Amino acid sequence: MSRRLLAWYSDAGRDLPWRHSRDPYRIWLSEVMLQQTTVEAVIPYYLRFLARFDDVHALAAAPLDEVIDLWAGLGYYSRARNLHAAARQVASAPGEIFPDTLEGLMALPGIGRSTAGAILSIAFDRPAPILDGNVRRVLCRLFALEENPRGSAAEKKLWAWAAALTPADRSHDYAQAIMDLGATLCVPRRPACPRCPLAGLCRARVLGLAEKLPLKAAKKAVPEIMRVALLVRRQGEVLICRRPYHGLLGGMWEFPDAEVSAGRSPDATAAELAARWGGAEVQSLGAVRHAYSHFRLDLRVYATLFKGARRVAEGEECRWLPPAALSEFALHGAHKKALDLVAGAG
């Protein structure tokens, strides 16, 4: 199986920026960015990160807020915090070198078994199974796995299959080949089975199940939350504040906001928020909707004029900025969408 896959990869493998190096730092950076994110989205961020942080020591020495600001727009922001923490861990370790064992890599923040396996295979050319989304789909079809691929029993089977198929030699090429197969041919919808190098070995194709596998897990209900965001204006500037570094959207910027509690209206919540931030009457600017990983947000946007002093709480980081400068800051999803309403409000 690996011979067929590697022969195909030699001709059809993708030319990606991180494939021109075996540097563990660059491989690690790319693998973390690629977690739940497409190659097309990752490439410009990867190049910008390397231009600013050309090695793990440069990243470790940078302030966290700079790392988060550079990450803005790539999503799943805990990855940026973990990236920074892992860089500092590597830079402070004896010898200041990247771990070259599965256990050592998994000891770094944000590195699970599959990411560690990818780094070990690609950077160090050591055989280690990987099981990212693309590989999981390939294996589910190759072995016609007709059960929830995220269930504990299926997970054990998939890891066992991944380990059994990983060759002892050319681990670097094999890891990238099987990921490329899932990304380019064995895609979620309308897989290109006639062009697949493993078509003759694929149980799902023989059984006519390629389009149906992997089985989809039952969708969980996603809660919807309503919040208000407040555009506080003062002498041609508006106020934004940085979220705490730990927790949801840690380190991102946003307008002052508050959740609309049960039984309360957005207007009343906005008025209370304005009073807390030294504002006057509020004016509704509109609404934006945004889906985060675990909830959907209905954000009602209001504006107010700053009328009085407000003390900044301890540990709170806020800035007054001209509206034209807001796009340069790492506003999180819904608040970034709200910029259109801010621009429309003048």
Which percent band covers the strand fraction?
Answer: 5-15%
Percent helix range: 40-55%
What is the CA–CA distance across the termini? 62 Å
Question: What is the 3D shape?
Answer: globular
Tally of individual helices: 15
What is the averaged pLDDT score?
Answer: 91
| Element-by-element helix/strand order | HHHHHHHHHHHHEEEEHEEEHH
Indicate how many domains the architecture comprises.
Answer: 2
GO biological process, one term: base-excision repair
Protein name: Adenine DNA glycosylase
Family: Belongs to the Nth/MutY family.
Catalytic activity: Hydrolyzes free adenine bases from 7,8-dihydro-8-oxoguanine:adenine mismatched double-stranded DNA, leaving an apurinic site
Descriptive overview:
This protein has 346 residues and is an alpha+beta fold. The chain has two domains: 2-206, Hypothetical protein, domain 2 (Endonuclease III, domain 1), CATH 1.10.340.30; 224-344, Nucleoside Triphosphate Pyrophosphohydrolase (Alpha-Beta Complex), CATH 3.90.79.10. It has helices at 2-12, 24-33, 39-52, 56-61, 64-71, 78-92, 102-106, 113-124, 133-142, 152-165, 171-184, 203-206, 266-276, 333-337, 339-344; strands at residues 224-234, 237-242, 253-254, 257-259, 279-291, 296-306, 317-321. Strands 1, 2, 3, 4, 5, 6 and 7 form a seven-stranded mixed β-sheet that branches. Helix 1 packs across helix 11, helix 2 runs antiparallel to helix 8 (113-124) and helix 8 (113-124) packs across helix 11. It is globular and about 70 Å long. The model has no long low-confidence stretch (mean pLDDT 91).
